[in-house]
């Protein structure tokens, strides 16, 4: 589990570094929302560039508190003495993995916003559909594992 914690902390640090490094080169108005075609449909102050790293830290902290008390999570199966350890391990692993996926989506989005700010013809390096399908696929894998270790 330590590997996920190191990766997630590294992703947050990289997100902050990337934002601070590129902030000075941003125009005064940056895109803050995109439509389904990937075109910006709302703009805001370049200060919004710091919103993604702040949300990343808050997500990391929130999930760290959830992991500290695995019994507080909502499980799709009844927790018994026989399955407690397996279910807690699955939940902790999934939450850490989920945090990793979300932080990678944040990095991809931040990169896209910064590149789009100066060139409206760019595309995300990883299509958003692929990013969100990875989250959905992870949920399917979670439910399969939970069912196996009932």
General description of the model:
This protein is mainly alpha-helical and 150 residues long. Helix content is 64%, strand content 8%. The protein is built from four helices and two strands, in the order αββααα. It has helices at residues 2-23, 51-68, 84-118, 128-148; strands spanning 29-34, 40-45. A two-stranded antiparallel ribbon has the order 1-2. The longest helix has 35 residues, at 84-118. The radius of gyration is 18 Å and the shape is elongated. The relative contact order is 0.15. The mean pLDDT is 90.
Please write the string of helix (H) and strand (E) elements. Answer: HEEHHH
- Which strand order do you get reading across the main beta sheet? 1-2
Q: What percent of the residues sit in helical stretches (DSSP H or I)?
A: 55-70%
Mean pLDDT: 90
Termini separation comes to 22 Å
Largest sheet entry: 2 strands, antiparallel
- The percentage of residues in β strands lies in 5-15%
Overall shape: elongated
Low-confidence stretches: none
Count of strand segments: 2
SSE class: mainly alpha
Number of contiguous helices: 4
What brief labels describe this structure?
150 residues, mainly alpha, two-stranded antiparallel ribbon, 4 helices, elongated
Compact description:
With 150 residues, the protein is mostly helical. The protein contains four helices and two strands.
């Amino acid at each position: 589990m330590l590997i996920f914690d190191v990766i997630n902390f590294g992703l947050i640090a990289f997100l902050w570094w990337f934002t601070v490094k590129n902030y000075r080169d941003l125009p005064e108005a940056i895109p803050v929302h995109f439509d389904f075609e990937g075109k910006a449909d709302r703009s805001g102050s370049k200060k919004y560039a710091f919103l993604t790293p702040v949300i990343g830290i808050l997500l990391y902290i929130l999930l760290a508190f959830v992991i500290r008390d695995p019994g507080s999570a909502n499980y799709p199966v009844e927790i018994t003495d026989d399955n407690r350890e397996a279910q807690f391990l699955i939940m902790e692993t999934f939450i850490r993995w989920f945090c990793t996926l979300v932080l990678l989506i944040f990095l991809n989005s931040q990169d896209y916003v910064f590149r789009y700010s100066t060139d409206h013809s760019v595309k995300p390096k990883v299509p958003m559909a692929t990013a969100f399908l990875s989250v959905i696929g992870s949920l399917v894998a979670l439910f399969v594992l939970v069912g196996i270790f009932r």
